Amino acid sequence: MVWSKKVNHRKVGDSHRDAREWDRAAAAYRRHLDANPDDGAIWTQYGHALKESGQLNDAEVAYRTATGLRPGNADAHVQLAHALKLQANYIEALAEYKLAFDLDSEAAVEDEIRRLRMKVRHAPTVKLEPGATLYSLQDMFVYLQHHTTVTGIQRVLAGIALNIIESGDTEARFVLTDDIGGIAEGDFWLLDNADVLEVIRYATGDFVEHPRLIKLMKTAEGRARPIRAGKGHTIIMIGAFWGLGNTIGKFLPAKRAGARLGAYIYDIIPISHPEYCDADLIRYFSMAFAEICLVIDFAFTISDFTRVTVEKYLADNGGRTIPMWTVPLAHSLTGPPSSLQSWPKALQRIEGRDYVAYVSTIEGRKNHIYVVEAWKRLIAEGVEVPDLVFVGRKGWRNSGLFDLLESTGNLNGRVHIVHDLSDAELNAVYENCLFTVFTSFVEGWGLPVGESLLHGKPCVVSNTASLPEVGSDFVEYIDPINLTGGIEVFRRMITDRDYLAERARNIRENFVARDWDDVAEDFVAKINAQRDVPVHPVGAPLIAQGRLVKPSDLFDTKVRIPDYVRGPTGLLLVEGFYTAEHFGAWMKGRFQTLTFSTGLAPGTPIVAYLRMKPAPWHEGGDITVRLDGDSDQGERRFGAQALAAAQPFLVKGHVDDDGVGKLTIEFDGTYVVPDHETRDFGVGLMGFGYAAADNAGARMDLYDAFYYSLGEAV
Fold first, then answer.
1. What is the per-residue pLDDT for 679?
2. Where do the domains of the chain lie, and which CATH numbers do they carry?
3. pTM, two decimal places
C-alpha cells in the first residue's frame, strides 16, 4: 500500500500568496476553509487573494465571514472596508473603518475615514433630543492641528467645555462643523464627551507632544457621529466666529430649521481699534461680525466693556439690537497654578535675579514700548531697575519696540524675550518675579492680569477698557499714554519694597478668583434663560438701490465696514455659492436664490440685473431668472449664448410684503464635472444689483457700475 502525506492547504495557500500567485492562493485557501470553516484568519487571507485577483464581490463575502467569526478583530473590518471602498460602496466602507477605529485606535484608518467623508453624504444617524445645547469646538480642533498648546480663545473654549462636561450637564453636546465633508450641508459631527475631555486635558497639561495630541483628536473625529439640529436646540459659537471652519455659513441651515443660535464675543478690537490690527484680520473679522449680528438670537460677551462697545457700535451703524449679556472670563486660563515649576532654559542666566514679567503677545496694541521707555528713563535717573522678561510670541505692528531694543542692546541686556513656555515654566516665571505689568491700550478682558493675581503677584495695569473689571482694586493703574505718571508708579513698585510686600499680602489674603466652574455655571444659566425667547428669523442683508454687488468685493480691503454692518453681502452667497474667488463665485448645483432687503414699500416694482459666467466644462443650456412677485414679467429665460457673450441679464418683478427681493437662478445646462473637482457647478455669479423700476438715477448707477467694474453695459 502506498501512503501519501496529507496536504496542508493553508501552507500551500501561503506559499502561493508569497509568490503573488493569487488565483492559486485562493484555490488552496478555499480547500482549507472547506475543512476548517471557522478559521477566521484564513477567511481574511482568502479575501486578500480574491481581491488581488480582481474578484471583489467574492472578496467582500470572505471578509464579511471573517468579521462574523472575529467581530473584535480590527484588521478584519479594515480589510472589509477596503473591499467595499474599491466597489465604491463608500457608506458601508466608512462604517467599517469607524468600527475598526473603535476596536483599535492604533489602526491606521484616520485618513481613510477623512477621505471617505469627502465622498459620502448620508442622513444623520443620531437623533438629537429636544433641549440639547450644542457647543462648536471646530476652531479649537483646527487650531490644535497646527499648534502644540491652546492659547487665547481656544484656551477659553477648553476651560468652559471641560467644566461643563465635568459638571454633569446632561444637555451639553460638543460638535464639529462639516469642515471635512461627509454629511449633509448644515449637519454636525457629534463628539463623544469622553473624547473631548481627553483632548482638552492633554492639550492643557504640563507637557504636550504634538503627535500624541493629533492622535487624540483623530480618535475623537473618528468616533464622531452625524447629527442634525433644528427646532428646540440651541447652538453656541463659543470660539472664533471668523474662521477655522467655524463661520456663520456652517450654522445657517440649522438656524433656518428653527435652532436658536448664540455667539460668545471676546472683543471687536479689529473694528473699534483697527490701528492695532493686520489689514486682512480687519477685513475678515469685520465681515464675519456683521454677518453673525444679522443672524444670531443672542450674544454673550467676556466683559461689560465688550458688551457696551458692541451695543454702541451696532446702534451707531444701523445694526439690529441683539439681546446681550456679560459672562466674564475666569482670572486664569489654566485654573489655580499648580505646584509644578520648571525654570525656562532660555532664562537660565537671570535665574535668581530680580525681574518684572510682561506675559502677552508682543504687538503694538500691548504697548510694551511704554515699559521699555519707562525703564530707559529710570536707568537714566540712576534707579537700579530689575530685568524685564517679555513672555509671548511676536505679533504685528511692533517695529518701534524692536527698533528701540536693537538700538539700546535690549537696554544693555536687561530685556529678555521668551515664548512657547509650558505651564510649568510659566508658573516659575510668575512665582519668581517681583511684579508684573500689563500696559495694553485696549483689551476684551485681560487674562494676564488675573493670572498675576492668582499667583499672588502685584500688577501694574492700564486703566482702560476692561482691565479694571479684572484687576479691581488689587492692581496699580497707569494711563497708557501718560509715560510720566507711569514712571512714578514703576519707581514706587521698584524702590519701595515694603509697599510692594503689602500689596502682595493684600492679594493673598483678600483676592477671590473667578474660576472656570463659575464661568461654566454662569454660561449655562444664561443659555437656559434664553429657551423661551422667540427665535429671531434669519435676516436678509440690506442692499442699496443702484449698488453693484460682486462676490469679489469680499476680497476688497477698502470695504466700508459700517456699510457692511447694514448690508453684509456675504450672507447672500454663503449658502448657495462656493467660496468667492476674484472673478465672482460658482453657484452650487443648478438652483439658488439671492434674498435681499430693499427698504422699499411692499409690492414696489423693481428691476434686477445680474451677470453670470460659464464653468470651463459648460456644454450649453439655458438659464431661467425669476424675480418673485410679478406673474407677467417676473421670469426670463436666457440661452447659452447669453453666457458666452457675458451680457448682463435683466428681469422685472417687485418686492414682497416685507420689502424683500428674491432673485432665483435656475440652470438647465449640460456639464460634466471633472474627477479632480470636488464641487458641483456649471455657472458662476459675477455681479448683481437692482433698482426701483421708476428710479432712473439708480438704474443709471447700475449701468455705470456694470460697465466700469465688469466691462459690459446693461
1. 83
2. 9-119 (1.25.40.10), 133-326 (3.40.50), 345-509 (3.40.50.2000), 551-710 (2.60.120)
3. 0.81
